[in-house]
Amino acid sequence: MVYQAFYRVYRPQSFAEMSGQHHVKQTLQNALLHNKTTHAYLFSGPRGTGKTSAAKIFAKALNCEERTTNEPCNECPTCISITEGSNTDVIEFDAASNSRVEEMREIIEKVRFAPSNSRFKVYIIDEVHMLSNSAFNALLKTLEEPPEHAVFILATTEPHKLPLTIISRCQRFDFKPLTSSDIIERMEIVLQDAQIESDEGTLKVIAQAASGGMRDALSMLDQVASFSGDSLSVNDALLVTGAIGEDIFYRLAKALQEKDAGTTLSLLDQLIAEGKDVSRLAEDLITFFRDLLLLRTAPNLKDLLELVSADSRFEELAKEFDQDTLYSFIDILAKTQQEMRFSNHAKVYVESALLKMIHLEPQIASIQSNSLANENPDLVNKVEQLERTITQLQQQIQSGVQVNPGESNAPQPRRNASKSSQSIRIPTGKINEVLKAATKQDIQAIRENWAGMLQMLQKSHAALLDEAEPVAASADSFVLKFKYEIHCLMASENPSLRAGLTDALNSRTGKPYEVIYVPEESWLKVRSDFIRNHGLEKQGDNAGEENEERVAGEMMDFLKEAEQEVADPIVAEAEKIFGKDFIEVHDD
């Protein structure tokens, strides 16, 4: 007889033989017991958790000839034929290889025919998420209104890929990953029936490597049995599954604790040389330090340990590590595991993580504070009070409050932060220099090219300068007034806008103007101060009095004209192209 793998030979044939999934078994058995079965079921969950096995058991229970309870008898011709896969009324359909709409239509056409020798015609569609959209649409109407003799059981590992219209017409059962104890219990039954000796450590290694899947566990058990023969050992299980033994973990943890980088990296290189997968190694290290953290914080929950045993040496090792250090180790390894997914140099990431863990500074402050609190609680209170007082004094000094030595403990009002630090600094000196050398020809040249210059800028920069206006210009600089201070601040602190504005003006006028940014309120103040100061200056020497009065008068007239003359940039551009004689401006 051809040899069959363990997961095929020892597939459960009744609900009692199923491992785990108690919520699924109880619901289905109650439905069978009270004749409240429905027409469509959806079994979803990770691979190897019993979805297809539960579907076959449920199909046998529905059609069992001798069923008097909620379990199939597995002895009647119907149960035997379903177990052997020869019953024509229980159809297993693999959607992964038959995803086209033609295959689904062929099934739907045969649904209306009554079962040949059973109560129900059961359709088990495995990997149902692989069906095409057309196949789902063809199945939809049949799921909604099937014949009374038809039952559909859909199995999938990716339920999120199913249309909601399909899911809403099914009773959904979510299969959960099996626990290590459930897997070990099932493997013990298999080994006892196969007359193979083993210890609990070997089965624990296999259960950890299976990651909650019974099929994976039985496959690895079959492989270890083929490698070892009639007696299984922990070393054989570690070699076949690629897992790491407790001794290696213990030596690695001791090297990390002693900050021995050489031993740590040598152990890592040894594991990789033995063929250990680097990604699996990072995952196992996270689980190992999780077990140490569990032994340190909750030593009574030894049943939850996954990698290490409740040995006295690991209990002592857990006490030697600080709790915060273990948390840091897990964080470092978790980040490393994420970064390794996008790199071809996984070994380098694990080496870097181990070196970070070696150079991690211990939480000395917390340890010292705990010991100090145990020795002298009053001293701790005085230190905390002194720290609070120093913090208050530092805040008062930073906020500018005058501190009196006799009133150090009294609360001082804190002044609000100065708004000047958040506003723009007005370059009054540069503006005055521009005003001294300002001419009407310069400001007109700027205003005539302003509209064309805005079109050369980016849209975001042009929008920011939409309400800005040139108000005074000299031969190499001009003052740009903004209606709102926030716009002025944004423009002055934007390097790309400043560079773009200078380049645009240079290309339009042929001069690399320096732009001086000023809000409207500040501009009015600087201009009035300049006019007043200029008026005081003309009261100087009598010899130059007439000349100074003439210059001051021209300057004041120019400033008033520059302030009042707000040329429309579009009109200015039109006048430049067609000439003033051909332009008439009408206000709507």
Write structural notes for this entry.
The protein has 27 helices and eight strands. With 588 residues, it is of the alpha/beta class. The chain has four domains: 169 residues, Rossmann fold, CATH 3.40.50.300; 62 residues, Helicase, Ruva Protein, domain 3; 113 residues, Zinc Finger, Delta Prime, domain 3 (Up-down Bundle), CATH 1.20.272.10; 155 residues, 2-Layer Sandwich (GMP Synthetase, Chain A, domain 3), CATH 3.30.300. Strand 3, helix 6 and strand 4 form a beta-alpha-beta unit. The longest helix has 23 residues. It is elongated. One of its GO terms (molecular function) is metal ion binding. InterPro entries: AAA+_ATPase, ClpA/B, DNA_pol3_clamp-load_cplx_C, DNA_pol_III_gamma-3, DNA_pol_III_sug/sutau_N, DNA_Rep/Repair_Clamp_Loader, HLD_clamp_pol_III_gamma_tau, P-loop_NTPase. Keywords: ATP-binding, DNA replication, DNA-directed DNA polymerase, Metal-binding, Nucleotide-binding, Nucleotidyltransferase, Transferase, Zinc.
Topology, element by element:
Layout (H helix, E strand, L loop, with lengths): L5 H4 L12 H12 L6 E5 L6 H13 L13 H8 L5 E5 L6 H11 L9 E6 L6 H12 L5 E7 L7 H4 L3 E4 L5 H15 L5 H11 L3 H15 L5 H8 L4 H12 L3 H13 L4 H20 L14 H9 L2 H18 L5 H13 L5 H12 L1 H23 L28 H9 L3 H17 L2 H6 L3 E6 L3 E6 L2 H8 L2 H15 L4 E6 H18 L7 H20 L4 H10 L10
Parallel strand pairs: 1-4, 1-5, 2-3, 3-4, 7-8
Antiparallel strand pairs: 6-7
